[in-house]
Every structure is written in C-alpha cells, then in structure tokens.
Specification:
Length: 429
C-alpha cells in the first residue's frame, strides 16, 4: 500500500475502498504511517468528505484499533449518552444514576473540558476523593454492582482515535462530520453498548452553531451507529443559553444533586428526561416515551436516583459529605434595563475559564470552586438595579471578567421569543 496514492485519491474526491481505510488506520496506529501523511488524509477528508460506507469503515477500524469491553451479564442492557458539548451541561451526572435506578447499566467513558465547554470528569473531581482514573476491571465491576460508573477512557480504548484527534486539533481538521462521527462512535462502541442517545447541540454555546450543521452531524451519527449494530437516536437541543443556571465544576455538581432530588431547573430536567426516555425505549423497557418519562420521574420522586448517585460516588472513592469548596459570591448587574434578548453563551464559558474553572491548555490546573450563576433566561425582564448573574471568584478575578460578561449579553426594549429547547429527533427509521 502506498499512503500517497490513498491521499491523492481522496484529495481528488474519489471513494476509498475498505481495505485502503483499514491499512491506513492500522499503519498509522502502529507508527508506520507518519503524522504528516495522516494530516494530509484528514485534510482531504475535511474538504472532500466521505460517504456512509467510508465513514462506517473508518469508525470500525478506529474501534478495532483497541479493546472492546466484554460484559458478564448480557441480559441487562448497557446504554450511554454522548453530548457534543455545551456550557453548563451537567446531564451525565444526573442521567447515569437515574438510568441505573431504572435497572439499566451505564458504563460512561467521559472526557475533560478543553475550551469553553466543561468536562464531566472535571466536574466529578470537584467531589473530594472522587476517582476518574479507575482501571477497566474496577470500572466494569462498579458498573455491574451499582449500575453506573463514569471514568476517563484508558489507553486501550480506540488508540487510533486518540492519535488522530490530537492531530486534528493542531491541523484545523476538527470540524469534519465523517471524522467527528468516527471519533465519537469508535469510543462509544468500545463500551459494548446496546443503546446510545446523542445530544447534538446548536446555538451560540455549541460546537455546531447552526441547526443545519447540527442536523447533518446527528444524521451521520445515527446512520453510522445503526449500520454498526448499535441502536442509536439523536436529539437536537438548544445551546443559545447555558443549560440550567450554574456554570463551573463544584456549582454544577450542586445543581446536579438538586436535580436528582427533584429541585432542578426546568430546562435541565426536560433535557435529562427526554434523553433518558429515549434510552429506556432503545433498551426495550418501555414502548412509549410517556411511559418511560413516568418511570424516570418516579425514580427521582422516591429518592432512588439520588441514592444511585451516592452509591456511584462512594464506589469511586468520593465523599459527598465532605464540603465542596465554592468561591465567594459577587454580583454582576447589566448597564441597562429591558429584556434579556440573547447571550453569547460560548463567551460565558470562556469567562469561567478566565476565572480558572477550565483549561486553555491541556496541562492547566482547574479551580473547581469558581463559576457563574445565571439569574435570568432569554426573554426575562432585567434591570440595572438587580443582579443578572452571580460570579463565584475572588474580587480581582470577578472584576477581570466583568467586561467579558457585559459583551456577552444583549438587552432589548421589547421581549424576544425565547429559543425552543428541542429542535429535532433523529431516529434513522
């Protein structure tokens, strides 16, 4: 196989054969194909795209570059959720124990935050003692015993994706639907799942800003997932404003716990319930979404969902009774009165990073105690005499981000139409 021939073929817009994709991925994983040739192929894919067969083969080869989890009890459905990322998105912390309380098993391999969207692992590590670095054996044992576990992916899972993702990040080839699809699904397929729901977000705080781009990605993910025998559904949800009210690691843990206790903000509850209901359907536990949501609501009302969360935290070394440090609270008031017209939600995520609550570089350390709390949503009346947000940080850091917050909000004299929370449901059927 001549890598240059394959690169030229895709550069010219021609379809790659399965054996060409297989040999290229295997060669790259083994170190036989250098980064510069993989970067050239990634750029060719970025511009020329891939059809569904090519994307499925790329996903398959990235999956087969590493290990796939094998489960002892095949009678209990294994399910998971993946979000394309958003500001204030703490759904995984709620959904995993909620589904475990419904009798499913949720082996969740999650990531860290890089850029304006927070990472699930960083949020959980705001809980004193919580370990996200468990080995595969402990991860599977906790999942089977408790019903859920959340850790970072090991080096054994889809090593081809790990190498390629790092390369895409520095070669401006991240925003490619075939490459995104293969990256997400290769890791999820490695979990040995029976069902997967995808939360594909659009809006100012999302990776895919436009609804059209988000729909294109969702359709690709569902089609490729199902072609590889994984029951897959996607919901297109809005990220024009933060999900819930709190942004920042310890703050988001607190809001997740409130939600598990039945006291969460309406938008966060709705997204969690819809995603959970989809997975109960995929697992064959209910025949309608209404029935599924009824069971989820019952598990929260009875306290079973929070109990599962507490069990998972304890099993992974965490201590819910230990105080989670939260920085001192400051107020942010808008300069004018009117209605909250729109938000640059991505800018709010970057503001939290400026406080120290996220990473600009992978090596950066995180301050779990800092963050923001929204006190109004798009369409609400706001006043220059009332706080619009709370800033959890030192006085100097809070003052540093005030100009960023002022630029991130737009106030109008007339009330806008609030954005729809749900835009579409992609089932592949």
């Amino acid at each position: 196989m001549n890598p240059t021939t394959i690169i030229a073929k895709k550069r010219d817009g021609r379809r790659l054969e399965s054996k060409e994709i297989r040999r290229f991925v295997q060669g790259y994983t083994r170190g036989e194909i250098p980064d510069y040739q993989m970067a050239a192929l990634a750029m060719a894919i970025f511009f020329q795209g891939m059809d569904s067969d090519e994307t499925a083969e790329l996903t398959r080869q990235m999956l087969e570059s590493g290990a796939t989890l094998q489960w002892n009890d095949a009678t209990v459905p294994k399910v998971d959720k993946h979000s394309t990322g958003g500001v204030g998105d703490k759904v995984s912390l709620i959904l995993a124990p909620l589904l475990a309380a419904c009798g499913l098993q949720v082996p969740m391999l999650s990531g860290r935050g890089l850029g304006p969207t927070g990472g699930t692992l960083d949020k959980l590590e705001a809980i004193p003692g919580f370990r996200t670095d468990l080995g595969t054996r402990d991860f599977q044992s906790i999942t089977e015993r408790v019903g859920c576990a959340i850790i970072g992916a090991s080096d054994e899972v889809a090593p081809a994706d790990r190498k390629l993702y790092a390369l895409r990040d520095v070669t401006a080839t991240v925003r490619s639907v075939p490459l995104i699809t293969a990256s997400i699904l290769s890791k999820k397929l490695a979990e040995g799942l029976d069902g997967l729901v995808l939360d594909v977000k659009c809006g100012s705080g999302a990776f895919m800003k436009s609804l059209g781009d988000a729909r294109c990605l969702a359709k690709s993910l569902v089609a490729i997932g199902r072609s590889l025998n994984l029951e897959t559904t996607a919901l297109l949800t809005d990220m024009s404003q933060p999900l819930g009210t709190k942004i920042g690691n310890a703050l988001e843990v607190d809001e997740a716990i409130l939600t598990l206790k039945g006291q969460g903000p309406a938008d966060l509850v709705k997204v969690t319930m819809e995603l959970g209901a989809e997975l109960l359907l995929l697992a064959g536990r209910h025949s309608t979404l209404a029935e599924a949501k009824g069971q989820l609501e019952k598990k929260i009302t009875t306290g079973n969902a929070f109990e599962k969360f507490a069990q998972m935290v304890a099993a992974q070394g965490g201590d819910l009774e230990a105080p989670r440090k939260v920085a001192a609270c400051r107020e942010f008031r808008p300069s004018e009165s009117g209605y909250l017209h729109s938000l640059n939600t991505e800018a709010l995520g970057w503001a939290v990073i400026e406080l120290g609550g996220g990473r600009k570089l992978k090596k950066d350390r995180i301050d779990h105690s800092v963050g923001l709390q929204m006190l109004a949503r798009i369409g609400d009346p706001v006043s220059s005499t009332r706080p619009l947000m709370k800033i959890y940080a030192s006085q100097s850091k809070a003052d540093d981000i005030r100009p960023l917050l002022a630029e991130a909000i737009k106030i109008s004299l007339t009330p806008p139409t609030p954005p729809e929370l749900f835009h579409d449901r992609i089932t592949g059927s």
